[in-house]
Every structure is written in C-alpha cells, then in structure tokens.
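Notebook, bench 3.
Goal today: get a predicted structure for polyribonucleotide nucleotidyltransferase from Manduca sexta so we can plan the truncation constructs. The sequence was checked against the plasmid map this morning, with no discrepancies at the termini. Length recorded as 631 residues. Pasting the sequence as submitted so the record is complete.
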Amino acid sequence: MLTKKYTILSRIRQRSRCYCRLLSSQANVAETDIQFSKGSPLKLSSGRYARFADGACVATFGNTSVLSTVVSKAKQSNNSFLPLVVDYRQKAAAAGRIPTNFFRRELGPSEREILTSRLIDRSLRPLFPQNYNYDTQIVCNMLAMDGTNPPETVAINAASAALALSDVPWNGPIGAVRLGLIDNELVVNPTRKDLEKSSLNLVVTATKSNLVVMLEGSADIILQQDLLKAIKLGTKEAQHIVRGIEKLQKDHGKMKRQYETPPQLEQSIIDAIKSLSTMKIREILSDRTHDKISRDVAIAELRQTVLNQLRDTEVDVNQLSDGFNTHLRTIFRDMIFETDTRCDGRHLDELRNISCQVSLYEPLHGSALFQRGQTQVLCTVAFDSPDSALKMDTLTMLSSGIKEKSFFLHYEFPSYATGEVGRTGAPGRREAGHGALAERGLVPVVPHAPYTVRLTAEVLESNGSSSMASVCGGSLALLDAGLALSAPAAGVAIGLVTRRNETGIDDYRILTDLLGIEDYMGDMDFKMAGTKKGITALQADIKIPGLPLKIVMESVQKACDAKSKIIDIMNQCIDKPRQSHKENMPVIEEIEVEVHKRSKLVGVGGANLKKLYVETGVQVSSSLHLYIFSL
C-alpha cells in the first residue's frame, strides 16, 4: 500500500514538472505581426521549435511558413573570412506531396533551392562583423507551402529574425519585399497568379535608414524610371519588417556573444610592410601593360618578397600575408580616388574593348564569340523537339507556376578560364546562379518557338562579368540561329569603391564594366541586362552594410548608358536574325492521324517511332508534330 502511494505521488510530481516546463516554454514564445501598407501581414514566431539552435524563427505569410535556424561554432575558424553556409530546402511534405524519385525522399538540392540559398546568403552576409570568422550555418526549412505566396522573401525574413534573436554577432536586422508591376501599378508581395500578369519580379532587401543590401529581379523590358520607383517602394516597405524584428529582438532576443578577434599586427610590422611595398604596389597598379595574369604574378612575387624579408619576426606568415593584402587593397582604392583612373588605364565610365563574331562552326544551329577585355564567352544554340523541354520538379511547379521551359540557358565556367587547375563535372552553385541570371536577361526578348531552344554559354577566359558577357554572346548566337528577337540584349557589371566614416559613406566612385580585381577589391558587383529600351534582369551583390538610394539610382543610370553602347557595338556584327537557314535546321510538319490508326503509327512500346528516329532523324511529338533533323 505504501509503495502504491509513493508511486502515485511520484507520478504527480513528474506531471507537475512537465506542466511547469510546458508553461516555461510557452512563456518564452515570442510572436509578432508585421503589417504592410497593403495585403496580408507577415507573422514571426520564435521559441517553439529548434531550441538547441543559437537562434530560430518561423515566418508565415499567408499559408506559407518557413523555419530558419542559425548555429555558429564557439571556436574560431582558421579562415581569414566568414565561413557562412546557407541551405534552403523545399520539402515535398510541406505541399502535401511525396517526392517522385526512386527513393521517395528529398535528395540533392534542386536549382530553385540553390538559387534561393544564394539569395538569402547575399542578403545576410554584408551585415556580419568583418572580423567574425566563426563557422556559421543557416538552414531554412519549408514547413508549409500554399502555392499562392512565393517562399523566397519569407525565408529571408525568417533568417533575418533568427539571426537578430540569436546570440550570434550581426548588424541587422534586414527586411525583404517582393515587388510586381501590373497595369503600371506597383504591387507589394504579389501572389503567384499576380506574377504571371506582372512585368516585374523584383526582390529588395534593405536595412534601417533605407539602406539597400541586395537586389535581384527579372522584368519584361521594364523602363528605368519604373524600376527606380519599385526599388524606392521596396526599401520603404522593408522598413516595416526591420522595425518589427527590432522590437522582437529588444523584447526576446539573446545578448550577443563576446568573441575573440584575430590578433592584430603590431604597428611596427605594419609600417615595415608599408615601407617595403608601397612604391612597388603603385608601380604595378599604374603599369598599363599588365593584363590579369601578369598583374597577379607581379603582386604575388612582391608579396612573397615582403614575407621573406619579414620572416625573422615572430609573426605568423598568414598574418603577414593578410597585412600585405589589406595594404594592397587600401592603395588600390586610394589610386582610384586620386586619379579617377583604373588599373588598366580606363576612366570610370569607359568600357573595355569589345569584339564579336558569329557563325563560328557550320554544324551548329547558331554560335557566337563575345570578347570584352579578357572576358571571353562562347555561346551556341541548339534546337530540338518540344519533348526536349526542361521539366520542372513538383515543388518548383507549385511555387512558380512553371511546368517546363522551352528556352533555357546553361552556363559553364571551367577552371582553365582563370588559368587554374580544378574539378570538372556537374555545375556548382556559382554556375547555377550565373546561368539563371543570364537566362533571365534573355527570356523577355526570345520569341515563342515551336521547338525547344537550348543556349549554352561556356566561359573560355574570365576577368570579370562573365555572366553579363553570356547575355551579350547569347543574344548574338540567337540572332545567328535565325530567331526573331524582339530586340538585342546586352549586360554589364557596375562596381563601387567607397570611403566610409562612422556615420556612413563619405565618398565614392562608381566603376563601369567591372574588372575581376575591382570586384575583389571593391564594395559592389551590380549586374544589369536589358535592351536599349528597358531592363530585363538585375542582381546587386553589395559587400558593405547597405547602400543609400542615391548611389543605387546612379548605378542604374550608369548601367543603362553602358548597355546601350554595348548594343551599338554588337549591332555592327549582326543586328537582325539570319534570313538564310542552315541545312541542319529543324523542319516542322503537322500531320493528322485518325484515332484508330495512331496505335499502328506508334507501334508496340513506341517501336515504330524509335525506328523512325534512328533511320531518318524524324521525331514525332505527342501532338503528332514531325520534327526532322539532318543526320
């Protein structure tokens, strides 16, 4: 009897402790609703899920919910940069579906997941402290998808809130807003159906004080003034999210952790580096005869000479190398401010030398070689039957509304393009991102064709802005293939160097047609593609904690002026579709087959169609169109 009584009391205590823990966990739950000027609110919730993570937040817009978590190691990394990894995953279960692959489970990331991961990364990375070199991972898992509200901006805002609530040092928060343009009216956070009617699909990420952190979008040849209005409105609407997350952080956020900063070089060592290298660095950077390779070799030899002369000091070689690189970056930027001239002798608004060539090889349906300075891209066009269209995975279809693509661009960046040794194989995240950007730049000008069009862009040499060179070369190759583009398209990259003080940017220089070294040493890589009339795609990779709208507006203007000049040069090579078609171009015929005879045409298991293709090169589509290719 005593044992039974003791057991009942222990169960009561156990349930009481569980109930107390439940009440405690509910007390730590933080929620807020963020209202925009129009439309549904954005709901942020933290404290329920993933409490072992350094920070976690669920963002819900409509019935689309994304859980974002952040974890950062307590031990400092050996890297001299922030080792940040962002993984965004779309789960089939979130849409009430089962994956269609053999294993019926999520496998490697799809292209859309990779592009969204890069979108989140570019929005968050600029706001980390410069000396924070700790391994950090941000994981965004889709919990629910309604097929109406695109999840990309939801994931960015969830990651922003998770970082703000965590103890990880970060100078946020940020807010992300999507803009559409329907009947000349800007729409904030458009639905999937709205985007089908919209001539603009722009994501704007901004932080407080109306500073732009990231831009990415595509447009149906939108006018410059409409794009600028959209950027301004997106920045304004993002302030609602920033203020909401700041309030949530103030009430429920963790105190930011203290972390060790890398040891700084003594002033005597810094002075020694300056005295040994300043004059020689200036000589190298002002020598107009240098190209990419020779300049890199000269700088590498000087770096090694300085390290050898300072090897007797008790300073780590990596620290010395970082000190030299910091000094090199300072001189590189100072010389631009001093002379308004760049290291290759160009003025700030000047383009590199451009050359174009089409019809390189007879067997190709269309081909072009675009050379801009030391950036060289070979583009080829291939036509095939509609059955060769690129099929989308199930979740991409639900979130974007696109079932298949009859025009697509594949971008390749082999290691020899930069004179290096590297792996070959499936494209990585960088190739996927650059290819998608170039494709968005060309899609609005490509007409609907009765066959599938595949455009490949292979970078043979790279010294900056290879993705925008792919737009230029792709436009030339499509004209060479005989496609009646609505207008030729071109792309250009705009750079930036700034001088900053405690309150913000004190002075700046905008650089047209970015070099590789200017991208590495500078503060922005702003890519824009379009026609003479308007803009088709843009992507801003900003490396400082936000840009004022004034600089963004000037950059857009510089890009529009530059792409018009590039199109003039391209038109001297080819300015209209090729009229004479090649012998190997596809010939399309439509036949009508009576219903009761179709099985005889197809054959058992499609045997007749396979035999027809092998012997004659003729493909029959499901709609009974004949596609004849020369063999």
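The domain at 587-628 is CATH 3.30.1370.10 (Ribosomal Protein S8; Chain: A, domain 1). The first strand starts at residue 30 and ends at 34.
Flagging this for group meeting.
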